[in-house]
Amino acid sequence: MKTIRPPRATFHQLRTLEAVVRLGSITRAAQELHLTQPTVSAQIHELQQALDAVLVEPAGRGIRPTEAAQLLRAAALDMFARWQRFEDELQALHGLERGVLRIAGVTTTEYFIAQWLHRYTTEHPGIEIELAVDNRDAVVRRLREEAIELAVMMMPPEQPPLEGVPLMDNPLVLIAPVDHPWTRLARVPRRLLDGAPLLLREPGSGTRLATEEWLRAQGRQPQIRATLGSNEAIKHAVAAGLGVAFLSRHALADDPARDGVAIVPMAGTPIQRRWMLVWRRDRRLSLAARRFVEHMRAQPPQSPATTPASPAPAPPGDTGQAV
Ligand code: PGA
User: Fold this and answer.
1) 264 in ligand 1 pocket by Cβ < 6 Å?
2) Do 85-167+274-298 and 170-273 come out as alike in CATH topology?
3) How confident is the model over 274-303, as pLDDT tens digits?
4) CATH class held by domain 85-167+274-298
5) 106 in ligand 1 pocket by Cβ < 6 Å?
6) Which of 68, 176, 253, 259 is deepest in the core (most CB within 10 A)?
7) Looking at the whole model, is its pTM more than 0.90?
8) Which DSSP string do the residues of 240-288 spell out, in sequence order?
C-alpha cells in the first residue's frame, strides 16, 4: 500500500491561505478571519517554507497570489469538503439516535403521511417527529419562517427557492352526490359545469388553487356555492347535496359510495397533480431531515390502489432537483 505522508501544513494555515487567495489581500483576509496582519503574513510565510514554494508575490502596494497558491487553494477546498463529510458521518455514527424531524404536509397527506413516518422511525427509532398538517399557504409560511425543514405539497412556490423530489400522483376528481344525474353518464361534458353549484376549499388551499387554475384553463364558470375549510367538510357537503367539488382521490374511500359521493366522469379530469417533498435550497438540512430525504428517495411511496388507472404524464421538472 502506498504510504500517505501527512501534509506539511495545518488547517489553520490552509484556511488563511484560502482567504488570502480568494480576497487577493493580506489585510482583507486578516479582517475576515479576525486575525492581525502579522499573524496572516507569518502563516503564509510558514506555509511557503514548509512547501518550499512561493505563494504570494509583491504587486504594487499589495500582493498577488501565485499559480502555486491557486493550486493549493483548490486542494484546501477539497480537504475542507472532505472534512465536512467526515463530520457528518461522525454525527451519523453517534448522533442520529437523537434529533427532531420537523416536517409539514398539506391537508390530504394526513391520510398517509403517518405511514411514511412510521417506516422512517423504524429505521431511526431515536428521532422525534414534529408533524404539522395544514393547507398549502400555511405550509409555505412555515418553510419561510423556518419552523419546518421539510414539506410535502403540490405546486411548490417560487419563493423561497426550493429543492425537492417527486413523491406520488395526486389526482383531483370531480365528486357529486351518489344519486346525481351526472354520475349515470358515461362522459360528462365540461360545459355542464357552467352555472353548476361548486364547493371550494378555503383560500390558501392547494386543492382550491389547482381547481381554479383548471377552471380558468377550461374557460368554465360554475357558481361558487360555498367555501369549506377541510376535505372532510367538502365530502359531507357534497354528500348532502350542497354542490359538486374537486377533491383529491386519496381523500376518498376505495369505494367513494361509502362517503355518499360518486366520481363524475367529466372530460379532462382528473386534474393531474403530484406531491413533492421539498426543502429550502438556501439552508443546510439537519441530519434527521437529510436521512428522511434519502429514505423517501430509496423507498418512494406507492400510490394506493384507489388511484385512477390511467395516470397522466408526470409534470415537468420531476427528475430534477430544483423546483
Ligand atoms: P390543501 O392541500 O388543499 O390543504 O392545500 C393540497 C393537497 O392536499 O395537495
Assistant:
1) no
2) yes
3) 999 999 998 888 888 998 999 999 888 876
4) alpha beta
5) yes
6) 176
7) no
8) TTS-EEEEEGGGS-SSGGGGTEEE--BTT-SEEEEEEEEEETTSPPPHH
